[in-house]
């Protein structure tokens, strides 16, 4: 379980930049409530938190790192149809968070058919609230994840920018948009719908982000009422 401190919680207030721990907490909640054992089981989606993604991106050891987190089996399962990973522009192995967050969405089919030139991975989409600011980091993460998803020699498809995703109107909401994108992609009937989605782009993105921040504050407050509170 992710331990959330007061300073982590405070980043959920409007105008604050979400840190890696809050994003990890939210993704864990999404995974537990929407992915595991859901009615969408045949379209299983694997979620990777910022710490795992940063380590994979910088070391290239996706197979080993995902195995350590018990994620290798789910990411490589024939039942898995999609993977969402948090992208950071940081180049530091010790600091997952840099100055900008975005979301990488990898979609794949059940099996690889390398003899016919068809990799298991269908495509890789980059949902970025700053119009592709993290495109190079997203490409690096996708390339590093490739061996853990499919061991065929076929090159990973080029990461494409998701043109329809909503854009942030300030310098602090990128992490909140990552969570907004993640929730909407997980809620899609199938990852096959991802390329056509306008994630967060329904004309009220800023309001949706404020609601998301408030919703996760309430969730943490509810959980804290039943658990020990740690001051930092």
Automatic annotation (TrEMBL):
Keywords: Hydrolase, Protease, Thiol protease
Position of the signal peptide: none
One of the record's GO molecular function terms: deNEDDylase activity
Record GO biological process: protein deneddylation; proteolysis
Gene3D superfamilies (UniProt xref): Adenoviral Proteinase, Chain A
The keyword Hydrolase is assigned to this record: yes
UniProt entry tagged with the keyword DNA damage: no
Ubiquitin-like protease family profile domain mapped to chain residues: 2-185
Family stated for the protein in its record: Belongs to the peptidase C48 family.
PANTHER family found in the cross-reference section: SENTRIN-SPECIFIC PROTEASE 8
Protein name: Ubiquitin-like protease family profile domain-containing protein
């Amino acid at each position: 379980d992710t331990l959330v401190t007061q300073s982590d919680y405070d980043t959920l207030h409007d105008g604050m930049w979400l840190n890696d721990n809050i994003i990890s907490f939210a993704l864990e909640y999404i995974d537990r409530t929407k992915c595991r054992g859901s009615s969408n089981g045949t379209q299983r989606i694997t979620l990777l938190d910022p710490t795992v993604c940063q380590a994979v991106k910088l070391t290239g050891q996706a197979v080993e790192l995902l195995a350590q987190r018990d994620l290798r089996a789910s990411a490589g399962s024939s039942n898995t149809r999609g993977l969402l990973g948090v992208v950071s522009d940081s180049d530091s192995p010790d600091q997952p968070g840099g100055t900008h967050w975005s979301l990488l969405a990898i979609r794949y089919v059940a099996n690889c058919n390398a003899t016919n030139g068809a990799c298991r991975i269908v495509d890789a989409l980059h949902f970025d609230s700053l119009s592709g600011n993290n495109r190079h980091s997203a490409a690096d993460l996708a390339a590093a994840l490739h061996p853990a998803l499919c061991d065929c020699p076929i090159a990973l498809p080029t990461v494409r920018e998701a043109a329809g995703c909503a854009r942030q109107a300030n310098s602090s909401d990128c992490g909140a948009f990552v969570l907004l994108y993640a929730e909407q992609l997980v809620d899609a009937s199938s990852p096959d719908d991802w390329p056509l989605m306008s994630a967060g782009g329904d004309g009220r993105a800023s309001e949706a982000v404020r609601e998301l921040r408030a919703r996760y504050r309430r969730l943490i407050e509810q959980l804290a009422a039943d658990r020990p509170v740690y001051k930092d």
